[in-house]
Amino acid sequence: MDEYNFVLLILIPLLFVLGLRIKAFSREGAIAASVVGSLIIIGGGWLYFVMLFLFLGLSYISTLSGFERKKSWSLQEGLKGERGAKNVLAAGALPAAISLMTFWNINPGLVFFLYIVALGTILSDTAASEIGSLDENTYMILTLKPAETGINGGISILGTAVALVFPIFYSLLGFVIYGVLYSVPIVSLLEVILTSGLLAFAGCLFDSVLGETLENRGYMTKFSVNFWSAVFATAIAAAVYLR
After folding, report:
1. Number of folded domains that form the chain
2. Tens-place pLDDT, residues 2-13
């Protein structure tokens, strides 16, 4: 492990305290986030950790958007927007596993691409849920019938818009940094930014389909839906990258 990664591991306890202070996590959630963050540092290094930090920042912005309105409708996450251990593991288990792929002889570009798609899918869903719930015109994704705001499988114009914009913006940040570090041509960067953002958006739509068909019937939980949606998007990403 290089010295930069070691320094980041030392910072994990400080970030644990920060997560609790700003009420981004419950105590159990902060512990789970510390474990996930440590694994990502060990596997992917500082760049992967920076992208995790940006993911958390954009997710937190989504959570705070219109928070008082969401709270009045009982649509907020936790008591004050904090994430618990199940939230963290559903979102972070797959990215952590992907980051550890760097220990094998696998194309580094592929690993980073999968990592961005996995986190981008969760970010897309978070933005759609947190910001999209401010749009009271909600429809079921498969039937397009009007539905109650916040229902599993419900979509809105606002939610769909942010579900597309957030992962593309996140991919832009990640691949610009990656491109500068590894001298990737701009044309190639534009293609991978758009592709990864659209795949994450597709994962978010799949999340809504699972929500309407399986979660509402009690066959899946919110956390398993999040996890398998990210797996779905990442599997497609691997197929697209290796085509």
Report:
1. 1
2. 666 777 788 888
